[in-house]
Automatic annotation (TrEMBL), chain B:
Residues 11-130 form the Fe-S metabolism associated domain. It comes from the Bacteria. It comes from Emticicia agri. Belongs to the SufE family. This is SufE family protein. The lineage of its organism: Bacteria, Pseudomonadati, Bacteroidota, Cytophagia, Cytophagales. InterPro entries: Fe-S_metab-assoc_dom. Gene3D superfamilies: 3.90.1010.10. Transmembrane segments: none annotated.
Amino acid sequence: MLVENRTDKATMLDIQKIRADFPILDEKINGKDLVYFDNAATTQKPLPVLNALANYYGHYNANIHRGIHHLAEKATSAFEASRKTIQKFLNARYTEEIIFTYGTTDGINLVAQTYGRAFLKEGDEIIISAMEHHSNIVPWQMLCEQNGCVLKVIPVNDDGELILEAYEKLLSGKTKFVSVVHVSNALGTINPVKYIIQKAHEVGAKVLIDGAQATSHLTIDVQDLDTDFYVFSAHKLYGPTGMGALYGKKELLEAMPPYRGGGEMIKEVTFEKTTYNELPYKFEAGTPNIADVIAVKTAIEYLDELGKENVAAYENELLAYATEQLLKIEGLKIIGQAKDKVSVISFVIEGIHPQDVGVILDQQGIAVRTGHHCTQPLMKRFGIPGTSRASFAVYNTKEEIDKLVLGIEKVKKMVL
Amino acid sequence: MTINEIQDELIEEFELFDDWEGKYEYIIDLGKKLPKLSDEYKTEDNIIKGCQSIVWLHAYMNGDKLIFEADSEAIIVKGLVSMLLKVLSGHTPEEILKADLYFINRVGLSSHLAQTRSNGLASMVKQMKAYALAFQTIEENK
Ligand SMILES: Cc1ncc(COP(=O)(O)O)c(C=O)c1O
């Protein structure tokens, strides 16, 4: 049991037991215990997920939806069981509303190139925000180049929150699509996406939410949000890399043309005409990433067993502790002080380039991310080349945060 | 001194350090001592691609010698850049083109610096050699 029956939420998790599930945490880096604070880039994977991968390849590897032999059936049913798990995870109405992708980036490109190309035309406006990851900027710019749409950007205030009044001013009859990030990877800000979606729907626009950073921290309910599309990556959710999912409302997915052509996505092929398969297969051309799809089910179950609320409570405790401790460091400034945040802290230190922070922390076994975090427009907004970012997951501890603080003091001592 | 003599000297200096801290403090010190590149050379064209922090490289001929000047926003990179300048600047294009930079591995920098930074260093070396080739061609066509 990883969860104890105690009333105090934050202490309900046995963190040492959880840590034992993540073999990588025993690694030594430059001779020191690894302190892994780059969870917003990708989380580590627990043993059950590693075992699920090995078990698939070791015991029932087969191509799916094709063979009638035992292994093919077993692989197919595990594969489809994962779709059901994701449906429940996002609280989607129908299983076929879950399309497997290779990640968030893939999901956004899919929507831009199918929904976008089919239903948006010259002069239509697409709204994104100033805190988007490049993967929620570039696909829309490519679409704009293809069909003459216009990109509009919701600005960000000094605390790293979206300026909602400005968003409302951008909305008009011309707005046909809104694509914003649920949780900012660079700042940790949780955006009020339900409100954003509601406002977009009032002018008849469709909405995509980039959930890459949200799924491991927040409970997602696509029906309650009433979002048209929701995308995420499994690798930020204790699952494998190169796997993710797109949720889309059934009627929209049905109306959209297919994305990639090939096997699996067809009903019948002749040289004159091909008819496409039904949902969700219409969007899943070729042999999919079977092993990783199967393993993401295990990752979600792992998280469910811990209890997402317990995880969130514990991560918030880490966030509060780290914020307090880091702010004691002279010259350190936190970028992104939104009221609603997940356990991500971006910071700059006066007179020290983030890269130097990263190199010297690495020497001490501490992994943080440095740079622009694939959000160059956002860095420009704050007038900085980049930040150092520490992001916490359920297996991190306060002792590790203390090491980070000492590590930063050492950086200052060496560089300044 | 020849390029190899300078490299050997650097290797000897690094042998004095028995931990990463000493090594990095030395590199940081080199970074701090490197004269600032004049703003007129901090142009878009002089920026080396492939580095996480901005690195500017300026090159010109002085007699038959190719001179490099460089700068970076990040102090450790600046220290590394300073070492590259120490080794390569002030030699003929031909010598620079032929140079085998064995010191990088010997002082443990490729292993002691994260992948992205090593790559940045590699881009810098590539760019220096590209300048050497360009100036060699110009000299030959004179
Ligand atoms: C907010 C956000 N959107 C999109 C992405 C892209 O995710 P992936 O690289 O898994 O496609 C990331 C990952 O860094 C992210 O943090």
